[in-house]
Amino acid sequence: MTAKAPSSRRVRVLLADDHVLVRRALRQLLESAGGVDVLAEVSDGPTAIAEAQRLCPDAVILDIALPCLDGVQAAAAIRLLCPKTKVLLLSFDEDPVYVHRAMLAGAAGFVGKSRVDRWLIPALRRVLAGQTFFSLSGTYHTRKLPASAPSPSPSAPLGLRDSPRSTHAPFTTWLSRFWHRLRSARQLG
């Protein structure tokens, strides 16, 4: 058996969201992109921190509204305990205040859940390549991380396909409807 070339290295991801259906949908989206292994799924902030420390994933994808400890607080702790792990935050609410809080916590990216089907895979690729990715109101902003930030591994995951949308249109349609219904349910109380 020969060793894999660095460009074929699989991405190791931890998912944290308090809704099991959202975690399943995110797992399916990530795994359909190719080159991604979802190591674990968790439902709260403290467990996300513990699992990140135990597993040392390449990336942690956190819902901003986790119970017990929110995603922003969990992101800050993960960045302290696992400095090489990149953190992406997801949220239904795309208020710039949340994006700012994500940046202050050390997250490398932020994607609104209404656009997760379009932006999650490109965001993951960019943050693992040492850039930031902040999606807001249908656009995204990216920049190279400063030299003081931990540099990405030379075996950064390059096997991700940019857009699973073309091959998984029914799934992404379902996911968009799911986000909309969940947002409506939250607004109704």
What do you see in this structure?
The structure is a single chain. The protein has 189 residues and is α/β, with parallel strands linked by helices. It has a single domain, classed as Rossmann fold (3-Layer(aba) Sandwich), CATH 3.40.50. Helices cover 41% and strands 21% of the residues. A 7-stranded mixed β-sheet has the order 2-1-3-4-5-6-7, sandwiched between helices. Helix 2 packs parallel to helix 3. The longest helix has 20 residues. It starts with 10 loop residues before the first strand and ends with a helix.
Question: What characteristics describe this protein?
Answer:
189 residues; alpha/beta; Rossmann fold; 7-stranded mixed beta sheet; 41% helix; 21% strand; globular
How large is the radius of gyration?
Answer: 15 Å
How many DSSP H or I helices? 6
How much of the polypeptide forms β-strand, as a percent range?
15-25%
Query: What is the straight-line distance between the termini?
Result: 56 Å
Determine and state the CATH class: Alpha Beta
How many strand segments?
Answer: 7
CATH topology: Rossmann fold
Structural class: alpha/beta
CATH superfamily, by name, is Response regulator
